[in-house]
Amino acid sequence: MVGAALSWFPTAAPTEAPAGAAVPAPPLDTPAVLRRLHDYLRVQVRSGVYELAALRQFSLDAASSETPDPRVADELAREVLSAEFHAWVADAARWSARTDCDRLDAALAQVRSTGALVLPGLVDDQALAVSLRIHGAESGCVAYFVTDIWRAIDTTSLHLTVLDGAGVAAPRTHPVLSAVVDAIGEQGLLASTLRTGGVDVAMTWRRRPRS
User: Fold this and answer.
1) What helix, strand, coil percent values describe the chain, rounded to 5?
2) By CB distance 3.0 to 4.6 Å, which of 3, 33, 131, 139 could disulfide with 115?
3) What average pLDDT does range 5-28 have in this prediction?
4) Which residues partner with 117 through β-bridges?
5) Mean per-residue pLDDT for 46-74?
6) Cβ(101)–Cβ(188) under 8 Å?
7) At what angle do helices 70-92 and 30-46 cross, to 10 degrees?
8) CA atoms within 13 A on the CB side of 162
9) Rounded distance, CA 146 to CA 135, Å?
């Protein structure tokens, strides 16, 4: 258990340290650390975007930011990632045969068939810019970011960025925006266009583990 692994940490710093001696690390608030790691890894895992190797690295990086001891960080990383991954697999076994993510995928495939560029699960705006430069998007583009997925996991609303051929927010009258709204509606999901551009999709994010 993690608690046992942490038992060797000092319960308090010495009042005086010998000259030149290293100051002992403060004790870990293990419940708080575990809570932060679980909150962070839950959305990373359930996004369904990352391979297991990437998740392991994310977990270790996050745990290493909580403790200077590499052995403790490794144990924390393994424990939390394993718990979150197995909880995801167990939940997915109880989901309906067709999830909202399946419906979203079908809708975006339909949008792609119109010639629009579809970019799911982007890391950031730079990744979007690079994709637009490489592939072009004369018929428009619809994209969503991993941060949009994280919010969807907790809010049941996924934001889609919809751009025209020039790479700016598509107005409500643009064909690509109409194609997105129509395709989503045909799959049984509700799409709301925003004044600031883009579309919000009312959905429960349930991306299945890769087989």
Assistant:
1) 50, 15, 40
2) 139
3) 45
4) 141
5) 96
6) no
7) 50
8) 29
9) 20
